[in-house]
Amino acid sequence: MNDLFGQYPMPKELESIGAAIESIRKDSEKYYNDKEALQDMFHSIDLTTLSTSDSAASVKSFVKKVNCFAVDFPHLKNVGGICVYPVFAPVLKSTLNVEGVWRAVVAACFPSSQTFTDIKCAEVCKAVEFGANEIDIVISVGELLEGNYEFVGAEVAQIKEACGEARLKVILETGTLESVENIWAASIVAMEAGADMIKTSTGKNGVGATPEAAYVMTQAIKAYYAKSGRKVGFKPAGGVRTVEDAALYYNIVRTVLGEEWRGTKMFRIGASGLANALLSAIVGEEKKYF
Question: What is the pTM of this model?
Answer without folding.
Answer: 0.96
